[in-house]
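Lecture 7 notes: from sequence to structure.
We start with the chain below.
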Amino acid sequence: MHRISLMMLFVLLTLPSINYSMAAGIQIGKTRVIYDAQKKEVALPLINKGSELPWLIQSWVDSGDGKTRGPFIVTPPLFRLDARTEQSLRIVWSGGALPLDRESLFFINVRTIPASDKNDDDKNVLRLIYKTRLKLFYRPEGLPGTPTEACEHLQFSLNGTMLQVSNPSAYHIVFDSLYVSDRLLPNADTVAPKSTTSLPVPAAISSRNVAWRCITDYGNASEKFRGQMDNG
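Predicted structure tokens for the same chain:
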């Protein structure tokens, strides 16, 4: 029977975006990145919270499918982050054509690879490669309203067992929570600008009441808004 050295095994984990995400020993200083068009660049701070070993950091931006690279340059794209040190990624728009009347959504990927401890050279060690994915919003200048107003003015209608959520604003809306007749809809996520998305609702609901919170630019939950579903 052949022995498989676990030292050669790397497992790729995709972590959810949580407040001040921690990919093993690496702390990521934001849960989302807002790229205002008037800025030349935006920074994403990373901290190695470990006390001994360095990590290798690899970063890039994709267009949402996990494959197509977005119109942004991340520097440095690959670097070593020593223990108890901090460095920021610099994200720069490369000048590709993007809509001027609404936000555009991309994703920044941060892959963290642990260094090898010399004391483990003769041991079978399982090393984990962590990959964190954060939303990156490109925000043109002069968009009407604010993200908070966009959240407040969402429109809801019921069409059979489907809830239609319409976002007439120029901003992406990301739900923190969405309740229909006091029932949580677990699949509520993102509604793109000037678009409508459909979500299934429980078959038996006792009212047309809707309550929701959105994720703010700072990664926390907004105040709770309340409304009524119209007929679809």
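Points to note: Residues 6 and 232 are 56 Å apart (CA to CA). The domain at 9-139 is CATH 2.60.40.10 (Immunoglobulin-like).
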